[in-house]
Write a structure and sequence with these properties.
It is a single chain. With 300 residues, the protein is an alpha+beta fold. The chain has 2 domains: 141 residues, no CATH class; 118 residues, 2-Layer Sandwich (Phosphorylase Kinase, domain 1), CATH 3.30.200. Helices cover 51% and strands 10% of the residues. It contains 11 helices and 6 strands. A hairpin with a 3-residue loop joins β2 and β3. The N terminus is likely disordered.
Length: 300
């Protein structure tokens, strides 16, 4: 299967920072870059050194394959811990990328997968003030004005966004598009996440584009990163997500063509439930949709 060329990179604005207490954005970016390249370089050199030592040890001492595999297992356990800690410290795309690696046992050692699986529940939630700021900037209303009720504890947190349950106003509504006090899910994009993640992706691509790094891997990380870059940019487009979701909702809400379709429409239950967005409450960084009962796909 061919890999589609990455779309034109969309420039992301740096996160807004108020007050003199914050360092200039360029200084923060430089510090983050140094942090990443230092830790990634150390991890890569550690693996290269270990590979050379293990190869020499096996040749000189005639070690069997089981002893070599055991040594590599210890190394991968350490390496997985290093990646885990870097993802926790830097967050941004490093957290998202490590979560992605935890679901790819086809390209990652099992020791990495075991370590990185813990990151599935390690996304820190936004504060109430941060959530309020996004709602206010996107809808022009406070949370109390926009919703009849709003649960401060998120249903789920991810590296790009988090989701809260809420209810639309049934009476005394402030907006004409709010119809009934039906339960909804409110998806809030993390402030500054797009800027940080796209910079992280650029750093990762620069690191893995180095010839001695790229040639050391059995798979081509640059091809994967190009694909992930395009997918990540799409994830930040909540308006595009709403259009796709509403299209799927419309298609699945009607019974398939056949005899007496008009009669079956009254009792038809779609095999897959897809939420519908709330008109007027969809922006680039905020998406309000129907709240459906769900359960995590990941088993404990």
């Amino acid at each position: 299967m061919g890999v589609a060329a990455p779309p034109q990179r969309r420039a992301a604005a740096p996160p807004e920072r108020a007050g003199r207490a914050h360092a200039p954005q360029q200084l923060l970016d430089a510090s983050r870059n140094i942090h990443f390249f230092a830790r990634a370089g150390f991890l890569f050199c550690s693996y290269k050194s270990f590979a050379l030592k293990t190869h020499a040890w096996a040749k000189l001492c005639g070690s069997d394959s089981e002893a070599v595999d055991a040594a590599w297992s210890v190394q991968h356990e350490w390496g997985g811990g290093q990646i885990y800690q870097m993802a926790v410290d830097l967050k941004g795309f490093h957290l998202k990328g490590a979560q992605w690696l935890s679901a790819r046992p086809d390209i990652c050692p099992p020791e990495w997968v075991a370590q990185l699986t813990r990151l599935q529940d390690r996304c820190p939630p936004l504060t109430r003030a941060e959530v309020e700021g996004v709602v206010l900037s996107e809808l022009g209303l406070s949370i109390t004005d926009a919703f009849a009720s709003f649960d401060d504890d998120p249903i789920g947190c991810a590296s790009i966004a988090q989701v809260h349950s809420a209810r639309l106003r049934a009476s005394g509504r402030r907006l004409p598009f709010q119809r009934g006090a039906r339960p909804v899910a409110v998806k809030i994009q993390r402030p500054g996440a797009e800027y940080t993640m796209l910079r992280d992706l650029r750093n990762l691509r620069s690191f893995f584009s180095l010839r001695f790094v790229r040639s050391s891997l059995a798979w081509d990380p640059v091809v994967i990163l190009d694909q992930v870059d395009g997918e990540t940019q799409q994830e930040f487009n909540f308006e595009g997500e709403a259009r796709t979701m509403d299209l799927a909702h419309g298609v699945l809400s009607h019974p398939p063509p056949g005899r007496l379709r008009w009669l079956r429409r009254a009792t038809y239950r779609p095999p897959v439930a897809v939420p519908h967005s709330v008109a007027g409450m969809v922006t680039k960084r905020l998406l309000v949709m129907d709240l459906l009962p769900v359960q995590p796909m990941r088993t404990k």
